[in-house]
Amino acid sequence: MNTPNIFLFSHMGNFYFYDVNIDRIAKVSQQLYEQLLAQQKSGDTIASDEWKKLKDAGFLSTNRVEQVVTPGSYLVKDILDHKLQKLTLQVTQQCNFRCEYCIYSGHYENRTHSNKNMDWDTAKKAIDFYYDHSRDANSIMISFYGGEPLLKYDLILKAIEYANKIFEGKELTYTITTNGSLLTTEMVRVFMENNVRITISLDGPPEIHDKSRKFASNGKGTFEAIRSNINKIIEDIPEFKQKLQFSMVVDSQNNLSCLNEFVLTDEMFDGALLLPSAITNINRKDKLYANDEFNAEWEYIKFLYFLHLLSRVPEKYSGLYRMAAGSLHNFLKCQNRPIRFLNKIEHHSGPCVPGQLRLFMTVDGNFLPCERVSEQSDTFIIGNVNEGFFMDKVLKILNIGNLTQEDCKKCFAFRHCTVCANMAYSDNDLSKSVKIEGCKNSRYQFYQILQDACVLQKLGYRFERLDEVPI
After folding, report:
1. β-pairing, 345-346 with 273-278?
2. In whole angstroms, what is the distance from residue 305 CA to residue 314 CA?
3. DSSP letter (8 states) at residue 69
4. How many CB atoms are closer than 10 A to CB 29?
5. Is the model's pLDDT at 2 over the cut of 80?
6. Rounded Cα distance, 422 and 420, in Å
7. What angle, rounded to 10 degrees, do the helices at 292-309 and 432-458 form?
8. Which of 17, 100, 144, 424 could form a disulfide bond with 6, CB atoms 3.0-4.6 angstroms apart?
9. Do 348 and 417 form a contact (C-beta atoms < 8 A)?
10. For 285, which DSSP code?
11. What does the pLDDT average to over 319-326?
């Protein structure tokens, strides 16, 4: 095609295009906007001072991706052999909670609770494998995952002691996400001595949290048990409060204003890092969709986040928007980076090198790209602790763009796509039709980011300030 590789859109009475080739937004006159629209259909040449000025600045190139494949595919084996960044051990599939939205709850097709636990021999093999395959990594991170990982506290302690010994001299960090009910002062002391970051799952005030997060033994809500446990530990170890992290699952069926008010006013969150996330519909049997009230409340929290970026309100007033801010933040930073033109051979964003960033090992010793994919599907078993990586599966997952190559070449969201293999999975294989649905969602989300960036720019936000703002 000889027309510019751009996406045209108007917003709040102004006219813009997003240049896919250089990853930049340009504001244009209505006259040029209409000329560009007509050009996309006719291919006619445009000659104007505004056009020439944009061309001289690097915009409006006709350059396009010709082949959708990861250029560095031939390097993947070397990366997995020497640069693994994180290992996540599924130490158990048991849990003392039964949470409605949990991926083990029965609402999802990819996991269920079981009595399986990881034994020490499997855990040791995994740590040894990680040691052998992370020699060129600058830092080492080992995560403990469940079920409820603290049910296997003795195994975790043994793993930490062993890893400390073999990784001596490297920067070593551990992480654990727990429901908080089994955490004790003694555990926290040990974890703090060994650089273990503790994240506690808490989903809001009792009326929200207890609706979904209940004890397996009696079906009762768990909020008060968790709060009293945290308070006792903080009383014994006051400095623990400043190291607390909370994981909060935001259910679109709940009252968002109530949740945001809880985060703003409850002293438990003072100084703590909040890590909100949405309930995923991927592999979910009964899909959840937000109602109009939730969407309106969400837009208000986003408005508060914009005010935070403009230094009008503290970040805490929009803390719940952090879950959606990452993609916007990354795009805004791109607007102030040196231009990188698209290559002829390139893959859309979304996939990472399977296993490199967050290699997940099940209780049985199977390797998965991360903890989000289906562990019951052969598609995502990319190796095991005894045989190593299965490179054919790794490359298939990495190059998911092969399913929709022609669509990807024309997609304006190519550089900011969020579709990975987990969003293209159905019936124990990767599916073109399922990926196309994921593509639609990704394009919609990126269009929202483009509009948000234009709003911020119109309000006087300078993209170069991004590094000054704690996001």
Report:
1. unpaired
2. 9
3. S
4. 12
5. yes
6. 5
7. 50
8. 17
9. yes
10. S
11. 76
Per residue in 179-220, pLDDT tens? 999 999 999 999 999 999 999 999 999 999 999 899 999 999
Tokens of 192: 């703090």
> Does the pTM of the predicted model rise above 0.90?
yes
Output the six-digit token pair for 336. 């102030």
Structure tokens at 165: 């010994």
59-109 pLDDT, tens digit per residue, is 999 999 999 999 989 999 999 999 999 999 999 999 999 887 776 656 666
Three-state SS sequence of 325-385: HHHHHHHHHHCCCCCCCCCCEECCCCCCCCCCCCEEECCCCEEECCCCCCCCCHHHCCEEC
Residue 248 in 3-state DSSP? strand
Count the neighbouring beta carbons within 10 Å of the beta carbon of residue 277.
11
Angle at 240 between CA 161 and CA 148, to 5 degrees: 55
Structure tokens at 54: 């944009």
The one-letter amino acid at 290:
A
DSSP 96-143: SEEETT-TTSSSBSS----S-B--HHHHHHHHHHHHHT-TT-SEEEEE
**Please, is 218 exposed, middle or buried when counting C-beta atoms within 10 Å of its C-beta (0-12, 13-18, 19+)?**
exposed
| Token pair recorded at residue 198 | 């503790």
pLDDT at residue 323, as a whole number: 66
pLDDT band at residue 274, thresholds of 50, 70 and 90? confident
Banded pLDDT at 378 (limits 50, 70, 90):
very high
Tokens of residue 461, six digits: 């936000």
The residue assigned the tokens 């040894």 is 128
What DSSP assignment string belongs to 220-242? -B-HHHHHHHHHHHHHH-GGGGG
